[in-house]
Amino acid sequence: MVSVGQIGGQPVLILPEGTLRNRGRNAQENNIAAARAVADAVRTTLGPKGMDKMLVDSIGDIVVTNDGVTILEEMEIEHPAAKMMVEISKTQNEEVGDGTTTAVVVAGELLKKANDLLEQDIHPTVIIRGYNLARTESLKVLDKISKDVTVKDKATLKKIALTSMSGKSGYGYGDKLADIVVEAVTQVAEKKGNKMVVDTDNIKREKKQGGSSEDTELIRGIVIDKEVVHPGMPREIKATKIALLDTALEVRSTETDTQIQITDPAKLQAFVEQEEKELKKMVDKVVKSGANVLFCQKGIDDMAQHYLSKKDILAVRRVKKSDMKKLAKATDAKIVTNLSDLSKDDLGYAKLVEEQRIGDEDMVFVRDCKNPKAVTILVRGGTEHVVDEIDRAIEDAVGAVASSIEVGRIVPGGGSPEAAVAKELRKYAEGFSGREQLAINAFADAMEVIPRSLAENGGLDPIDTLVSLRSEHDKNKLEMGVNVLNGGITDMMKLGVLEPVKVKTQAIKSATEAAEMILRIDDVISASKLDKGGMPPGPPGGGMGGMPPGMMG
After folding, report:
1. CATH assignment of the domain containing 193
2. Could you say which of 150, 181, 199, 434 is the most buried, measured as most Cβ atoms within 10 Å of its Cβ?
């Protein structure tokens, strides 16, 4: 479609031939349909009885998961409006680490309800204004119904971890995995001013296929995916003194290009001996500091390895920078960049450093540090796909527990906060006489997609469930939610189904903003450019378009 304008009765081409343009209501309908298709793709994964998706890529690799953000990242989505939905899940994952499916499903439902209003000739800006009012009110309602939680309340934090992991692979070992997650998060949590801060980067996850999910363990220290550099070195050292070096134990080449001419074999021998002396001096500096374990970010010369093994020092080379930082936080060692400065004050402590064979690889374990501010979860499972899914479950649970500690507020799960928000929004809408009232009510209806989806995925009747839920909430029982496992409506606090309030607030913010952005679009212009070879597009029905007869060989 070519867009034309008129100047003095003459048509003026504005857009090049081959440009596709969708305008007005048609553009809005297409965008909303694409965004809803994405939401529908992940909706069936919601809740403890949600189903998994198998994603197969072009080379046949498969991913089996019910993690919202993973599904959307693995799907090759082309439509621009649908890509916005993927952005919602990424934002939710970065901000909270959990609740990605909730955010996308709510956004899809907000657009569905907005589409119904557009069909009633309500202008998009009116809908957006109503949605904005509803969002602000929703956040107030969530704040009002939320309860306090602290880093010391490990029983509550475990319930949050279990809720986050429900429906994922390895849930049979959920109790053990939840304990590991809570222990890891509370260990790395730090108080800064009056706030608790949890940097989830300090919880390293190392995946290794083999064993079962039950073999997943928490190491109060760091696991390095490297092996000890020399066969003559000890494989296990207790009561360790750990040195962290950010410099090579090698004879450095000169900065400028130099040439050494040796005319006498004795001089060559002297040159080699001098190199060995230099390396021995370096090793002596390590020995003098009192270190018996050495982690080096750069290389260790073969001769230096020999001298270190003679002194019974366990050494690991080419350790990643991120792992060095974690080692410093776990062992309380200082990373030293100049070997001459290394002293006993720079050394860290761990009760045990050992090399262990996990699966078909050797790994170095730094265990039982005094008060580690960085820890490792070693994730195990029977197959690669199981390990990956358990890793995703642990990642979600870590995010949920961490955001609970940081914000210090939690809400009951099972769709009860969404039902409470919907009830309060309907009351709030009565205070408006304009068309915004319709948009606020539409927002309230959209929030109920979560309890409805939970009921559907659990094999319950969604209409009966919603009616019962509304009835309980009308009696001001705001903690009642959908009991997916046994059916009916239950007090979620007593059932132990808890979620961080940040999961809900972030989901509502992201979903509303994405829905508003999609609703504002009334014109989609997509330029279809020629191939790099410059060949015109072929005519309908196949054939090599633009190629004269007789050119085919």
Report:
1. 3.30.260.10
2. 181
